[in-house]
Amino acid sequence: IAPEGPVTMSPPRPTPSLKAKIARRFVKSLAEVWTSREPATEGSIRERARRIKIAAYSSMARSAGSRRAWSRALLAKIRGRRAKRHRHLRSRRCLGLKRKRAGSRNMALNEASGVGELRRLVPGGKAMDLCNLLEETSHFVQCLATQVKVMQSMADRYSV
After folding, report:
1. CB atoms within 10 A of CB 53
2. Rounded to the nearest 10 degrees, what angle do helices 130-158 and 42-64 cross at?
3. Which residue of 2, 8, 53, 129 is 20 to 30 Å from 147, comparing CA positions?
4. pLDDT tens digit string along 104-142?
5. Of 27, 59, 24, 61, which Cα lies nearest the Cα of 139?
């Protein structure tokens, strides 16, 4: 049976771009930083700078979503879960459940090509295989570039 009269459907909502997501979350995080403003002393300025940096990284990681390993690792580091994980790994080592290590040949190849440095730079990179590391690095760099554009546009807009 055909419906009577015109059928109206609302158009699908466009998904916000990565830049818009980062900007929205960063502004919200900055608002929280600035509401707890204290008199400007050297220590408070450093603390505020640290909180702004954390706001920038957390807004970027939350915008990327939990599907990305680097975003999960970055958020876990910000939330302070890293220490708990290390304690768990130490307790497993004490029980004799050691992790398998890559052969020296693979490690030499990885280190020679700069993969070791890449693993150090990308959050969560130490636990990734080479293929995932390159994919996550690509996305991480894309998000960093977007974050820089957002911050630059904010600085341009609000500078006097």
Report:
1. 10
2. 120
3. 129
4. 555 555 555 788 899 999 999 999 999 999 999 999 999
5. 61
Residue with tokens 């450093």: 46
Phi-psi region of 156 (alpha: psi -120 to 50; beta: other; left: phi over 0): alpha
Q: Which residues contact 69 (CB under 8 A, 6 or more apart)?
A: 124, 127, 128, 132, 136
Tell me if the pTM is above 0.70.
no
- DSSP-H helix ranges across the chain: 18-35, 42-64, 69-79, 82-94, 104-112, 115-121, 130-158
Retrieve residue 35's tokens: 């509401």
Q: Which residue in this structure is represented by tokens 């293929």?
A: 131
